[in-house]
Amino acid sequence: MTGFKTTGEKKLMLFSGRAHPELAEEVAEQLGIGVVPTKAFDFANGEIYIRFQESARGADCFLMQSHTAPINKWIMEQLIMIDALKRASARSITVIVPFYGYARQDKKHRGREPISARLMADLFRKAGADRILTVDLHTDQIQGFFDGPVDHLFALPLLADYVASKVGGDKLTVVSPDAGRVRVADRWADRLGAPLAIVHKRRDPDVANKVTVHEVVGNVKGRVCVLVDDMIDTGGTICAAAEALFANGAEDVIVTATHGVLSGPAADRLKNSKVSEFVFTNTLPTPGELDLDKITVLSMAPTIARAVREVFEDGSVTSLFEEQA
Question: d(Cα 220, Cα 38) in Å, to the nearest integer?
Fold first, then answer.
């Protein structure tokens, strides 16, 4: 005899960083489990200390952290937590990143620039992550940056069904805020059975977040326009696009985005905008100053929880979206 067999069962454990614990608690509730207690604090010089309060030996570990502000701190905390799980003899480590930091830096626009989204993937892999589970990456090719499985979840079914329940399809026009989001907007148009329009814009390459809207391609007069994007940061692009739609005769504008980054002047821009409703998911916490009647936040927790269960049970994450197509 050269060895022996064990009859132990697989064990799922869910861990959370401190960036957005509310979402982790929702996911845990959907799974019928608790989030593993974790001791976490900052030293006086800003260094982060992590210690899990339960053994992770031999467990399939799912570690959730959304990269909200201060983004670099929470990325570092997640990397430290991955390292702690690796050294605690976890059987597998799946990193759940509802909002993937640095996703906008997925290619070189000009010389001497980094590809920071690739660096993020390398950091996760080097720290010990076996798999990444994320929601609505800025571009699909980021999946190829990680040398391992990437489960890419979509908020489109959740957001589109909400919009469809609010506005009749015969009045809707789906609008892409720029040429880069046309493919996503096209999926929305197919799901809602609505026509598609595009706001043509030009961004100043030397000034961050400065956008000039040029023209609207498509008929929006008298229509309820649904502007769709993956994220809203300062709100400049989306509010300028909405103004262009109203200037072209749109009856109303609804804005939807998976990730409400909402930094800097976003609060004032959203408050002062003529847009009737902004719809986000809870992949990121919504800043307190944006507790407005016109902001609706939908939960991605059920979708993330189902994906976690499929991964743990060796099922199909893709099937979650094929069912809803």
Answer: 51
State the Rg of the chain over Cα.
21
Calculate mean pLDDT across residues 62-69: 97
HEC string for 75-93: HHHHHHHHHHHHHCCCCEE
Q: Give CA–CA dist 56/136, Å, rounded.
A: 29
Residue 1 pLDDT = 56
pLDDT of residue 214: 67
Using CA atoms of 213, 218, 222, 227 in order, give the dihedral in degrees to the nearest 10. -60
Residue 190 pLDDT > 60 = yes
Residues 112 and 221: their CA atoms lie apart, in Å, by 44
Residues in the chain: 325
Q: Is 40 helix (H, G, I), strand (E, B) or coil?
A: strand
Token pair in block for residue 185: 């907007």
Tokens of 253: 């504008």
- pLDDT, position 310: 96
- Compute the distance between CA of residue 14 and CA of residue 35 in angstroms, rounded to an integer: 5
pLDDT digits (tens, 9 = 90+) for 5-38: 666 789 999 999 999 999 999 999 999 999 999 9
Query: What's residue 284's pLDDT?
Result: 97
- List the catalytic residues: 201
Pairing state of beta strands 211-217 and 196-203?
antiparallel
Tokens for 182, please give them: 């046309």
Give dist(CA 184, CA 174) in Å, integer: 10
